[in-house]
Amino acid sequence: MIFRKRIVIADNERALLFRDRQLIAVLTAGVHQFWDIGEHLKVRIFDITATEITQKDVKVLLRNKASLCEAFYTVISTDENEVALIYVDGQFTDLIKPQSEKWFWNTEAKVEVRRINVTEQVEVSAKDMKVLAKAAKASVLSAGMVIKEVTNQQVGLLFIDGKLVRVLKAGKYGFWNYNQTIVVEIVETRAQTIEVAGQEILTKDKVSLRVNLSATFKVTDAVKAVTELANYKEFLYNALQLALRKAIGTKVLDVLLADKEAIDTFVRGFVAKKVVEFGLTLIEVGVKDIILPGEALNIPKWQSQRKLGLLEQGFVMLL
Fold it and tell me: Cα 191 to chain center, whole Å?
């Protein structure tokens, strides 16, 4: 009939029926017929293959007409300390962040929700990490999780809101980063080398030397090294620098050249005692080279020029 409106809704569709721009019905799969004298009826059809409702205006319509529409959709919301993992027919599809919500059409698909309190259960399980890494959006992971891998010969320190709460052994870890600040600091416990290069130092008899030193150390107590020092490598560097200046600045050039190993011994003894209380062990210290500026070659012969390998110009290097 000319005034009869026929609407066909497929199995994978839902439709909103409007009369004079007012929502009057939600249509499910099937053939629907309505009187429409004057063409006042309009229909808006949605593909519900993807069960989530993403259109903001549709959410407003459904919410405003709750008594008419509430049987056709479900809203899943989270509180301020909660995330929700959404599974559709057993497959993970999305993560709902704290204080958020997602809307879904009620269909034959089975929608399941698993809620996690991120302040009580800070660590993400290994199973959830695999699921999230495989299926979740990269932006969700980067914003909502901290993922760190601690290898052999490393220690991880977990800080929550600036407080050390756990020492992590070798393994892969994930932590929820919502409504709290998660920091995992990785500390290397294998032997490491630090270089103190290009140090310009005056001997006791006012000869300017340029000294390069190398040291090997280990972090034996990661908690002390990280929590009691702002930067343990910088602290060690400064301690080596200070000891080197003491070792050279208190001796005349001739004495230094006669026993270069005495510098190593002094520096190691001085620094080792200073850093051990902060969880650092100094293994070895060695002066790599001592460089004497060329103009200093005019020093009296009784000083140790005989021990220097003279270069034609520039610097003399004592190896």
Answer: 24
Here the CATH number for the domain that contains residue 207 is: 3.30.479.30
Nearest to 248 by CA among 304, 201, 199, 318: 201
Bridge partner list, 126: none
310 located within any domain:
yes
Q: Are strands 13-19 and 22-27 parallel, antiparallel or unpaired?
A: antiparallel
Residue 107 located in a structural domain:
no
What's the domain range around 234? 192-318
Q: What is this structure's pTM?
A: 0.76
User: Residue 248 carries which DSSP code?
Assistant: H
CA–CA distance, 119 with 62 (Å, rounded to integer) = 33
Helix (H, G, I), strand (E, B) or coil at 261: helix
Q: What is the pLDDT of residues 12-69, one digit of tens each?
A: 999 999 999 999 999 999 999 999 888 899 999 999 988 899 999 999 999 999 999 9
The contacts found for 67-74 with CB under 8 angstroms, 24 or more apart, are 68/23, 68/24, 68/25, 68/26, 69/23, 69/26, 71/106, 72/14, 72/26, 72/28, 72/105, 72/106, 73/103, 73/104, 73/105, 73/106, 74/103, 74/104, 74/106, 74/111
Q: DSSP characters for 287-316?
A: EEEEEEEGGGGGS-TTSGGGGS---SSSEE
- The count of domains in the chain is 2
Q: What is the pLDDT of residues 261-310, one digit of tens each?
A: 999 999 999 999 999 999 999 999 999 888 886 544 444 433 434 344 33
114 found inside a domain: no
